[in-house]
């Protein structure tokens, strides 16, 4: 399981993991496999594959996660969302994962397709919350389940206390760990950890894995932040905007350098604060994440 993996010996100060998304076409899939092979040499504790809204992307998540399970030395986690799925379809998808040899699932509610911040409608025969999905998956067999957590609070939570209660509920329902939404201010993570431990020490002891995005494009990070309801602190934004320059196109090289500095600084602070591991949103590229890992002292070239 993921929790066991996090306690195994690892190179560098803490274990790390990597998030991928299902590639759209053959060229993108080749690029993903190149990144996978690079990461494989760096021994991540696990890798995860996100789950989209359409049928074909969902099939790709299952197929590629299955290939990761069978054809690599990596431990894959398949994401699963409740969007547009009846309970029967969710059961079938979990069955497909099991057939692929996948036993680690990240249970999510998902966002409305098209407009992530728009109204969420439960499928008439579906589930309403990730908490219900955790129970459903656990009832289906010997699966290890993780959930999402939100250092700045989920955008639909009326306040942070409500948000923390729902996270505790997901963990009590049987989730073994959570992975946070990306954030750019370590304080948000630390406050969530404090709230969680105060709300329920037993659940608060489960790994709260920080999600880190090494920024390589100002435009991309702005869009992602907008879609997720997370925020960029003013000083971080200033550094990125300064690097982007005032030309018609952002200076990608300079933004990338600052993005790697920021991810390294945040990771160092998180390590000093005793995090169980670091989870990197790779965007299916190995380079930025491995640069951060190298700067953190991970022996990234070890075969
Ligand atoms: P929930 O835990 O169900 O929470 C949703 C909202 O409902 C919250 O505001 C919560 O406070 C509230 N709530 C929960 N339970 C109750 C209750 N019993 N009563 C009242 N209110 C309640 N999306 C994808 O589409 N595919 C992915 O692969 C994907 N991967 C992700 C990975 C990570 C690490 C993270 C952080 C997010 C990911 N997402 C993904 C996005 C996620 O699906 C959305 O953020 C979604 O809006 C919330 O999902 P959740 O699982 O946290 O939902």
From TrEMBL:
Record-linked InterPro entries: FAD-linked_oxidoreductase-like, Mehydrof_redctse-like, MTHF_reductase_bac
Catalysis performed (reactions): (6S)-5-methyl-5,6,7,8-tetrahydrofolate + NAD(+) = (6R)-5,10-methylene-5,6,7,8-tetrahydrofolate + NADH + H(+)
Taxonomic superkingdom: Bacteria
GO BP annotation list: methionine biosynthetic process; tetrahydrofolate interconversion
Pfam families hit by this protein: MTHFR
Gene Ontology molecular functions: FAD binding; methylenetetrahydrofolate reductase (NADH) activity
Alphabetical keyword list: Amino-acid biosynthesis, FAD, Flavoprotein, Methionine biosynthesis, NAD, Oxidoreductase
GO cellular component, one term: cytosol
Pathway given in the UniProt record: One-carbon metabolism; tetrahydrofolate interconversion; Amino-acid biosynthesis; L-methionine biosynthesis via de novo pathway
Protein name: Methylenetetrahydrofolate reductase
């Amino acid at each position: 399981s993921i929790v066991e993996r996090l306690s195994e010996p690892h190179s560098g100060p803490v274990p790390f993991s990597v998030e991928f998304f299902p590639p759209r076409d053959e060229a993108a899939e080749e690029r993903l496999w190149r990144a996978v092979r690079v990461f494989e040499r760096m021994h991540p504790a696990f890798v995860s594959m996100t789950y989209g809204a359409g049928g074909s992307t969902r099939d790709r998540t299952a197929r590629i996660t299955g290939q990761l399970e069978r054809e690599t030395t990596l431990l894959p986690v398949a994401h699963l969302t409740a969007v547009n799925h009846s309970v029967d379809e969710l059961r079938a998808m979990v069955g497909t994962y099991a057939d692929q040899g996948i036993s680690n699932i990240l249970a999510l509610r998902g966002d409305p397709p098209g407009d992530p911040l728009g109204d969420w409608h439960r499928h008439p025969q579906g589930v309403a919350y990730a908490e219900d999905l955790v129970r459903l998956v656990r009832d289906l067999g010997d699966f290890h389940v993780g959930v999402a957590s939100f250092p700045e609070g989920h955008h639909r939570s009326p306040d942070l206390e409500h948000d923390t209660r729902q996270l505790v509920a997901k963990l009590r329902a049987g989730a073994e760990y959570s992975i946070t939404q990306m954030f750019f201010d370590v304080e948000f993570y630390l406050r969530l950890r404090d709230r969680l431990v105060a709300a329920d020490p037993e659940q608060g002891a489960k790994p709260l894995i920080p999600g880190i995005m090494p920024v390589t494009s100002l435009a991309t990070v702005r869009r992602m932040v907008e879609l997720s309801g997370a925020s960029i602190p003013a000083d971080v934004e200033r550094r990125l905007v300064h690097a982007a320059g005032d030309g018609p196109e952002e200076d990608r090289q300079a933004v990338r350098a600052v993005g790697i500095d920021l991810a390294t600084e945040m990771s160092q602070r998180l390590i000093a604060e005793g995090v169980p591991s670091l989870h990197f949103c790779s965007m299916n590229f190995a380079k930025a994440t491995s640069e951060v890992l190298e700067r953190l002292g991970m022996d990234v070239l070890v075969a």
